[in-house]
Design a protein that fits this description.
Strand content: under 5%
Largest sheet: none
Mean pLDDT: 93
Distance between the termini: 33 Å
């Protein structure tokens, strides 16, 4: 669907297209803990949601980097032989997914900031 800039989320139409903000809110909420859906402010203020989503994704990415760094000494000895590679691959793939989503959330934040009323 998307034809926004590189890294723009596929499910979100480009900024300015009818319905893009609602699609952005939906995508951003999908990147956050489910409990975030309970806060009406995030839907009313999409730029605030994008801001908090980028911070959440940043924290997840940092946690994944820490897991990658610590998995061998902390978990490696407890894993069955030959399984550490699978765990490392899963951590790497999740890290790539999080990095892409962090970039996408940042692009949405930038676009939503331009749309937010200036006070």
């Amino acid at each position: 669907m998307s034809s926004g800039p590189p890294g723009w989320p596929d499910r979100v139409p480009p900024a300015g297209v009818a319905g893009w903000e609602q699609a952005a809110v939906s995508w951003l909420l999908d990147q956050c803990p489910a409990d975030y859906r309970a806060y009406a402010a995030w839907r009313r203020h999409p730029a605030a949601l994008a801001w908090v989503a980028t911070r959440h994704l940043e924290a997840q990415l940092e946690a994944m980097r820490g897991a990658w760094r610590d998995v061998r000494p902390e978990l490696g000895p407890a894993l069955p032989p030959g399984t550490l590679g699978d765990v490392l691959e899963s951590l790497a793939r999740e890290g790539l997914r999080l990095r892409a989503n962090h970039r996408a959330a940042g692009l949405l934040l930038e676009a939503l900031r331009l749309r937010a009323p200036i006070r």
